[in-house]
Amino acid sequence: MVFAEQHNGKIHPVTFELLSKGRELADRKEVELSSVILGHQIREEAKELIYYGADKVFIFDHPTLKEFDSILYKQNIVSLIREEKPEIVLIGATHLGRSLAPRIAAALNTGLTADCIDLQLDEDGELIQVRPAFTGNILAYIKTKTKPVMTTVRYKVFKARERDPMRKGEIIEKEVKVVEDTGTKILGKIPREAVNISDAGVVVAGGRGLRRPDDLKMLEELASLLGGVVGVSRPLVDEGWASKDRQVGFSGNIVKPKLYVAVGISGSPQHLAGMKDSEIVVAINVDPSAPIFNVADYGVVGDLYEVIPKPIEKIKLRKMKL
Amino acid sequence: MTDNEFHIVVLIKPVPDMEKVRFDVEKGVVDRSSAPLEINPFDLNALEAAVQIKEKLGGEVTAVSMAPPAAESVLRDAIARGADRAVLLTDRRFAGADTLATSYALASAIRKLGRFNLIICGEKTVDGDTGQVGPEVAEMLGIPHIAYVTEIREVTKEKLLVVSELGAPYLMELKLPGLITVTKDVNKPRLPTLKDKLKARKAKVEVWSADDLADVADVSRFGFSGSPTQVVKVLVPPMKKRRSQIFKGEDAVDKLIEALEMEGLLR
Amino acid sequence: MREDIVEALKNIVGDDWVVNNPEAVKSYLEDETEPGVKVEPAPATDVVVVKPVNAQEVSEILKLANREGVPVYVRGGGTGLACGCVPSKPGVVISMERMKEIEIDKENLMAVVGAGVTLGELLKAAAKEGFFFPPHPGDEGAQIGGLIACNAVGARAVRTGPMRNYVLGLEVVLPTGEILRLGGRLVKDNTGAGKLMHLFIGTEGILGVITKAVLRLSPQYKATATMVVPFNDRRACLNTVPEILQSGIIPLGIEYVQKKEVELTAKRLGLEWPSKEGEYYLLIMLAEFNEDTLYAQLEEIASICRKNGSLEPLLAETPEEQTNILKIRSEIYPTLKPYMEDSPDITVPPANIGKLIEELEKLERKYDIYIPLFGHAADGNLHPVIPVKEGWTKEQYEKLRMEMYQIAVKLGGVTTGEHGVGEARKKYLKLNLSNEAIETLRKIKKVLETTPSH
Ligand SMILES: Cc1cc2nc3c(=O)[nH]c(=O)nc-3n(C[C@H](O)[C@H](O)[C@H](O)COP(=O)(O)OP(=O)(O)OC[C@H]3O[C@@H](n4cnc5c(N)ncnc54)[C@H](O)[C@@H]3O)c2cc1C
Ligand SMILES: Cc1cc2nc3c(=O)[nH]c(=O)nc-3n(C[C@H](O)[C@H](O)[C@H](O)COP(=O)(O)OP(=O)(O)OC[C@H]3O[C@@H](n4cnc5c(N)ncnc54)[C@H](O)[C@@H]3O)c2cc1C
Ligand SMILES: Cc1cc2nc3c(=O)[nH]c(=O)nc-3n(C[C@H](O)[C@H](O)[C@H](O)COP(=O)(O)OP(=O)(O)OC[C@H]3O[C@@H](n4cnc5c(N)ncnc54)[C@H](O)[C@@H]3O)c2cc1C
């Protein structure tokens, strides 16, 4: 069973990734794949869960479920699990998922594995859950003795299947249990403050290789196409081209994005201190001996003004086609 | 502590100093003896939050840990940082606990402590790293919780107004008694004074065994026997090597774009 | 730069390790010297950067430069504060960044390191094997070669002194290209080689290029702490320092900082200065083999501080807390840099530090300025900042600088305790050294080279 996380009636993409993995596991175990969604006026959206691989979708639709409430969500899901007895329950390891899943597991007195990056089946068809621990220094392989086996799974580790609007499945409306006052209340959403490059998934960083402050716009365009933000080396902050909260390095921010693009940055030890744990590092520099290339996965020796426009064009072109 | 005094429980996990702990790539083991224990960094924020609330509302802060006997020094540190009382659950029978069994032991200890208004946990730990203990303890005690609290805006004896990160920051209200888990953003923990450190070195840490909880708990649910999840294998991945593909010349950019597409990074 | 020289350099190190694209050369023209005393580098088009990987290549480069009469500038981490690595004339910059070999010799408690290893890299490699390296001159991007050339000191040198005390062996290339290997994995070496070695420590590279070093390591301490002691009175704060040393406890480090500067720095770094009380602080770093010894010392030091009117000390024990305090201390200089003309590195006999403060306060009144102040209190080494003041001319700054220097000399001190002379402060050398002494240095240099390197 896959928990479908939704915000304002829109399903979180991690759900589709879980459905894809769930489909694979269900097929190998020759069982059904179900999904559960809670919210208000979500019947239309629920069909998406079938298009992405669910056989059955349970809907809890009620005004009190419009926004997340850990106790209300827990109660309805727990009673559904007690009825349906799924073998495995998958929940996205988002903030919401990681706040909700432990309550469900504790209520069911079952095991829960956190933030998995891989799920495998052993010879006996039992689920092996793989997760990093010790701040990413080790990988633990975990089995659960109790049923259901519950797991939260990290976003963007599995690939969602193609959406198939012809796929058929069953949608089952469940009766909602309402609790008057659960003790928590959402009073409103708060606009996020300034850029936070520490948490960004993609950072495109510019250094002294840039000639004018205006040229940062080019990096901004690339960054936004990649879904990321712009960072800078210290000299650009000293020059007043960018604000301090964009500085990467020892005396700035430590970043660990999936993709770090260093553009016209030499790779001083102080700069490396802020980005060396990035997953993939790309460097663009005219100087083949620049130390940044020592920590790069991919690099281009060349003039950034000739290099950067090309991927920008390429991505734009593809976005137009879609 | 009188009946209407505000009582805060802070859950503190003693963890190995991550800068010193060593990992054996070949054997796939973590050598815990290589590093001294310290307060889980996120729990320093939890403790600071508790002390700040106490400074406003009065009352008492109790620190509770489940850990090996060597963790007494960690709880003394908690006392130096403002906890009034410290309880260490330590017993062979607590060993090998997963989050469910850990939460059960901690929830039982809190029950045994008696009345409480607020429980504060860290967002997660730097070793087990699950972030599950807070919400599980709340469920076991039948109280509401708010996780990933990044800011505490208002506190009264009846409720808390907090900002919680749920994909986006939300302003939320929590009725007490309740539980929160806090992130590093919630405050900047203060340094203890030398005087408090010296005093805490002589302070008493209450040590409770599994039997001490027998009147409020089912002891078979502690430790390994009460743990449904089991770590069957541990891998220490070797330090990641960079791919080091540096392209030069005419088609360098095309090669870069191709490589990034292969990595699925241009989606 | 002459094409034939570029080609010859490429023949020595390979095409990829010679940089003459002016846009790339620009990264190798500056260091961290104060804005007001910076030396103007030669244009990027007149400079070529070369990155040798061993002593042999360095030797060939030096021979070439010698032959062609081209000045050579050795560049380490570029964190120097005297423009020592700045090519002030058209020439060759030798960047040591590729000399990265590093071996921890556990049995001998030593490390054998290439000159291009950064302090950060050494600290990390040593810690991994359970060792520690005390000297900490501010920025961990400095290289071992640069630290030795400058005989750097820094914040953790009260107990064990400057870089010189850690160097057991050196590989040096003379300006004429000869490679010397002096000292070695020896704690004692009273032969001529061991003595000669010291000629190259602290002489800022003018006598030769350091390519490799054997360094002494210290075992990791089991119990460490950084105590922050706030004071309301500046002199009381500084006068406490000699008393601590006289008590028989020699901490790893005793640093002096002030509220205004540390709060500004902490804010810039996104950190918080731990103390809400006091205006002036001593940061006392201790390292011992067990907690009881550590605490006994803490109590003794605290009682001396209290007797001198300190407020309640704060104690940092976790690595993160200690690192953050050291980080704030180290980053005061870069934080103040945009507001400073200069920051003299004056050093007086430790017991005269109280008098030094009095004199600096007189200068504040005389010039109607605020002089930010921080430094290595136990070494008698302070960094008073000459702030940028609207309307001031170069001459006015120069006058104030000279007054500061003269105060130091009058109190039995020198114009630089650790940052060195470099290109930026050559002209002040005569305040410290007699003509005869300067002439002697010149003679030594002449013996070792045929062409001046700076
Ligand atoms: C105490 C201290 C703390 C510091 N903290 C930080 C910190 O937190 N973060 C930080 O970044 N730095 C920090 N620094 C500064 C650091 O030492 C370097 O000076 C800085 O990182 C250099 O920035 P850069 O790489 O942008 O510039 P440079 O080193 O000048 O590099 C520019 C690069 O651009 C390349 N280039 C030039 N033109 C082009 C072109 N047209 N196309 C492609 N490439 C081109 C050049 O080849 C060169 O490699 C700190 C320094 C000190 C002393
Ligand atoms: C490699 C590895 C992987 C693991 N994976 C899982 C797993 O997927 N699922 C699972 O159920 N167990 C798992 N465990 C076991 C789990 O780490 C322990 O149960 C641990 O005691 C608590 O979990 P945590 O460290 O993740 O705490 P978290 O849930 O991350 O801690 C959150 C907060 O709870 C409080 N807290 C947690 N533990 C204690 C304590 N002992 N005493 C006082 N307060 C505490 C603190 O306030 C802390 O900040 C794993 C253990 C290891 C070594
Ligand atoms: C924020 C900050 C704080 C600092 N704090 C301190 C401090 O507390 N104490 C202190 O002593 N210093 C301090 N410094 C100064 C600086 O870190 C040291 O002087 C350091 O020793 C310089 O090393 P480097 O590798 O960066 O040398 P560079 O700046 O590259 O060069 C300095 C000099 O050494 C020569 N040199 C470099 N490498 C070699 C080599 N392999 N062979 C021969 N000559 C060489 C250069 O030619 C030049 O003359 C600080 C600097 C900064 C930026």
Automatic annotation (TrEMBL), chain A:
What SMART domains does the database record attribute to this sequence? ETF
One of the entry's Gene Ontology molecular-function terms is: flavin adenine dinucleotide binding
The protein's matches in InterPro entries, at most eight in alphabetical order, are given as:
DHS-like_NAD/FAD-binding_dom, ETF_a/b_N, ETF_a/FixB, ETF_alpha_N, ETF_asu_C, Rossmann-like_a/b/a_fold
Organism (species) = Zestosphaera tikiterensis
Q: Return one Gene Ontology term, BP aspect.
A: fatty acid beta-oxidation using acyl-CoA dehydrogenase
Q: Which PANTHER family match?
A: ELECTRON TRANSFER FLAVOPROTEIN ALPHA (PTHR43153), ELECTRON TRANSFER FLAVOPROTEIN SUBUNIT ALPHA, MITOCHONDRIAL (PTHR43153:SF1)
The residues covered by the Electron transfer flavoprotein alpha/beta-subunit N-terminal domain are: 1-186
What is this protein's name? Electron transfer flavoprotein, alpha subunit
Tree of life domain: Archaea
Q: Which Pfam family, any one, appears in the UniProt record?
A: ETF_alpha
UniProt record similarity statement: Belongs to the ETF alpha-subunit/FixB family.
Automatic annotation (TrEMBL), chain B:
Q: Name one Pfam family in it.
A: ETF
Which Gene3D superfamilies has this protein been placed in?
A: HUPs (3.40.50.620)
Q: Which residues form the signal peptide?
A: none
Stored InterPro entries: ETF_a/b_N (IPR014730), ETF_b (IPR012255), ETF_beta_N (IPR033948), Rossmann-like_a/b/a_fold (IPR014729)
Please tell me the species this chain comes from.
Answer: Zestosphaera tikiterensis
Name listed for the protein in its UniProt record: Electron transfer flavoprotein, beta subunit
Mind telling me which CDD domains this protein's record contains?
ETF_beta
Q: Please list the GO terms describing molecular function.
A: electron transfer activity
Q: Where is the Electron transfer flavoprotein alpha/beta-subunit N-terminal domain?
A: 27-217
